[in-house]
Amino acid sequence: MLTALLVVIAIGAGHGEPASGQDAARGGMPGAFLSTATGAPASALSWTFDASQSAGGNGWTAERGTFTVGQAGARLQPDVNRRVVLLSPPGLPEAARQADEFVLGVAGDAGLQRVRVQARRDARGGWITIADANGAALRVTADGIAINRNAGARSAPIERLRIELTFRTTNPRALTRIVAIPAPG
Question: CA-based, 20 to 30 A from 135: which of 13, 103, 111, 164?
Fold first, then answer.
C-alpha cells in the first residue's frame, strides 16, 4: 500500500459536517473543510477526495492531463509531457491569500519532480507564481509533500489557484487532498 502524501495545499472536499470551529475556515466554500490528518490550523483550506465523494471534483478541474473522481477517489493522469495542471474552483475565500505552505496528497512513490502553484486576483487576471519547488525543496512530511510560498506581497486577494505537477513518468496517480496552510501567528 502506498503512503499518502500531501502538499500543504490539500485537494479535496469531503462530505458531512465540518468539525466545530471549521465553518469560519471554509469561507463559504462548499466542500472545503479541515482535515485532521494534516494537523493544520482551523484556518487552513483543505479539499479531500475519497470514495464518499461525488464525481464532481468539488469544482477542481484539469487544464492539462486528466483529473477524475470516482468510487476509488481522485486519479491524476499526466499528459505526454508528464504534467497535470489543476485549477481550483473560482471565488476562493479570504483565507486563500494567507496561505504560506501547500501540501498535496499523492503516494510516496509517485515520482513527483516539481510543483508550481500560481494564483490570480480575478477572473481576467494573469497567473502569478506564488510557490515553486523541485528536488530537495519538495519536503516529504508525514502528511505528504510540502512546499513553501515564495516571499512577497500577500495583501492581494486570490480568486483562484493553479497547481502544476510534473512527474517522472506518465503513469496515473491517486490524489487524496490539497491543503493550503496559513502562516503561523
Answer: 13
